[in-house]
Design goal:
Blueprint lengths: L12 E2 L2 E4 L14 E4 L4 E5 L6 E4 L2 E7 L7 E5 L1 E5 L10 E3 L8 E7 L7 E10 L5 E11 L8 E18 L5 E8 L7 E12 L7 E7 L19 E2 H5 L10 E6 L4 E3 L6 E8 L5 E12 L1
Antiparallel strand pairs: 1-2, 2-5, 3-4, 4-5, 6-21, 7-20, 8-14, 9-13, 10-13, 10-14, 11-12, 11-13, 15-18, 15-19, 15-21, 16-17, 16-20
Length: about 300
Amino acid sequence: MTSDRLRQAEVREQADMIMVTADPDGVETAAEGTFAFDTTTNILYINTDGATAWARGGFSEKSWAFNSPQGSTGSFYVGGYYDFGATPNDFAPALAWGTANASYAAHFFIVTGAVPGGNVTIRVTGTSITDAAVRVAVDTEDIVVTAGTAVDTYFETSKKWIGQVEISVFAGTPFDNNYGWAKYWDNGNRNFTVRGLEAVWLGGANDANADIHLHHHRATGWTFNAGAPPDEPTPIATLQVDHNTEYEVRNNEHGAWKRTNLSTAVAGSSSEGTLIEIVNTANRAFELGTFLLTISPG
């Protein structure tokens, strides 16, 4: 679709829609109200005039406040979190994971540390909670690792858990796995594309090795570690990589990090999402800050 055939394609916002120049998968004209999905950009369009005018959902933004806790260093999270077991476990005997009455509302996950010779069923037992606030006091879910599954394979429960859970081997020969909780922002279980980010902060201490990671939570890209928690998938972006040298946090000075050229598709409807990891090596390095994520539909 050419710009001379769609003069309103100056990209103007109309309510929650943006008029655009588009030919989703080569469809230039259609009846008004027709939906067309562009498989290249993963964007859904709707025809607005019965001819060549198309619209799509506009960009939207999600923001979180963050800081570094006083008296501790390491990694902290906003918009979700990972909570890893310190070392691998084969869940034989059964493992009690979490703390009673704690409000995790997170998926339990494993990253495999061996190739099983036969099917292995790992059972999670505890209290589950749904996004519709349906609480099941005594619930179970099985993770079935089939024979021959490769090392570094990620599994997570579809259910979310609150309080302490028990992890046990229900069937098969036990083997070591990394494990933990995974909580991530999935845009209300809807697919989206990450388009940009912006972090702004005030330093509360000098930190020469501070960092911020924008993670894409997904099942691929994990690495099992025999004596430590697993390695997560490579982040979408990190402060240190982008700023190269000038990434330090300075006491009582402002700092910022911005990207506008991202295009990571996130299957929020299929157990994917995003979360932000704040890394500091000095107590209270980030006195206060905000993180803004820009997304588009699809």
